[in-house]
Amino acid sequence: MEHYKNNHTDCHPTSRCKIDPAYEPTKKIITESFAEELLIKTIKKTTMFKNATDFSFGKDTHYVESYNNVLNIFEDKRIAFSSSEYEVRAKLATLHWNENVDRAYTSQWQAPSAANCRPKTKNVYKTKTYGYHDSIWIRYLSKIKRV
Ligand SMILES: [Zn+2]
């Protein structure tokens, strides 16, 4: 709350408001107690506030973005799937992501830098694996045998 009141005394040491001498708030500064109460009420309703321990190690969003990229591959937004088809595709996307997230890379290369950007190091990842296909197939076949 204090951050939004432009008081950064207790903000995290790595926060931009602490390290950037030219920092200017991007949001309107809260000066009215009524607005402060409304913001507190809204914050307390969020999933993140209610389940704070689930987010205690989350400092970046690359895993969520990575998972969303995989979901977009399995659940093409241009195609309307039935609810059950969506559910199957979400589960396949999760299996695929779990199997391939954080896979090793074979080499790195320096991407050419654009005019105002610093050069980026890109990883050449090992080929994706699809072990979950076999796992699903084996489970399917074992169900057939039981019938
Ligand atoms: Zn701050």
| Rounded average pLDDT | 91
Radius of gyration: 23 Å
**Strand coverage percent:** 5-15%
Assembly status: single chain
Order of helices and strands: HHHHHEEH
Judged by helices, strands and strand pairing, the structural class is: mainly alpha
Bound molecules: zinc ion
The biggest beta sheet reads: 2 strands, antiparallel
Beginning-to-end CA distance, first to last residue? 61 Å
Output the number of helix runs.
Answer: 6
Number of domains: 2
Shape label = extended
Number of beta-strand segments? 2
- Helix content, binned percent: 40-55%
- Describe the strand arrangement of the main beta sheet, using strand numbers: 1-2
Low-pLDDT residue spans = none
Describe what this molecule looks like in 3D:
The protein has 147 residues and is mainly α. It has 2 domains: 3-55, no CATH class; 62-146, no CATH class. The protein is 46% helix and 9% strand. A two-stranded antiparallel ribbon has the order 1-2. It starts with 15 loop residues before the first helix and ends with a helix. The mean pLDDT is 91. Bound molecules: zinc ion.
